[in-house]
Amino acid sequence: MPLASPFGGRPVSRSVDEDKMRQGTCAVLLLDSFDQFWNPTRDSWLEESDSMFDDQRSKKVILVLHCLLNQNARIDGCAYFPGAMGEAARAVVDSGVGILQMPCPELQCLGLDRSGRMRDGTDIGIREALLEGEGEKACRNLVAQVMDVVREYQKHRFQIIGVVGNDGSPACGVASTHYVDGERAGAGAFMKMLREELKRCGLDIPFVALRDHDWVERTTRVKALLETAAEA
Ligand code: SF4
Q1: pTM for this structure?
Q2: Which of 141, 171, 192, 215 is least enclosed, having the fewest CB within 10 Å?
């Protein structure tokens, strides 16, 4: 009788001794039509079939900043769309790549009402707040969650085609970001950590950035990234 896969995948249809499995003496599960083995002690695949994930999916994924699809996460006064970010969001949806919507670091680490973050009467700035103390811990935790998913796709040889950020953002800026005293060159807190982690995993993927006051022109950069991925 078919058994449910322990990781939520296809059922196991070859004969497997359920008692042995429960007792932990069955080291591997043989999966029907797969030349591969699940090793419960290592929590990983030992070998992957060429036919795996051979369905309608593109096996291409793009990492996008949260507010590309949800402007409600924006800081007060900085939402430019009712919901998703217009043409840029449409371009990503229509491209056929999978969309990995990253968490909004500012919303999750500092809250929705995060304008004028004060500490002991001092405005330390949003970027700075994400790079020290509890803020940094929370931000690193979000990056770790994203990286868990990235590594999973990487393990199964999916293509991570790039990262979309937002220049000027204290968290999601790619080439420019807001410090407490204004905008300068540099990456936002979240993108900085994410780039470091991707590099640590040997992933050299392109980062592009939208920009609030320049989103029409910046959308062409996102489209160019998607077109390059489609040709690959
Ligand atoms: S922190 Fe990033 S995802 Fe959140 S609103 Fe700002 S730019 Fe968007």
Answers
A1: 0.79
A2: 141
Distances (CA, A) of 65 to 13, 129, 133, 159: 41, 19, 23, 18
**Burial (CB count <10 Å: 0-12, 13-18, 19+), residue 157:** exposed
Distance 75 CA to ligand 1 centre (A): 8
% of the chain with per-residue pLDDT over 90: 65
User: Atom 4 in ligand 1: which residue has the minimum CA distance?
Assistant: 104
- Does the C-beta of 135 come closer than 6 Å to ligand 1? no
In tens, the pLDDT along 58-108 reads 999 999 999 999 999 999 999 999 999 999 999 999 999 999 999 999 999
Tens digits of residue pLDDT in 110-157 = 999 886 566 566 788 999 999 988 899 999 999 999 999 999 999 999
107 lines ligand 1 (CB under 6 A): yes
Residues paired with 178 in a beta bridge: 183
Residue 71 CA, closest ligand 1 atom number: 5
Structural domains of the chain ordered from first start: 1-49 (no CATH), 60-231 (3.40.50)
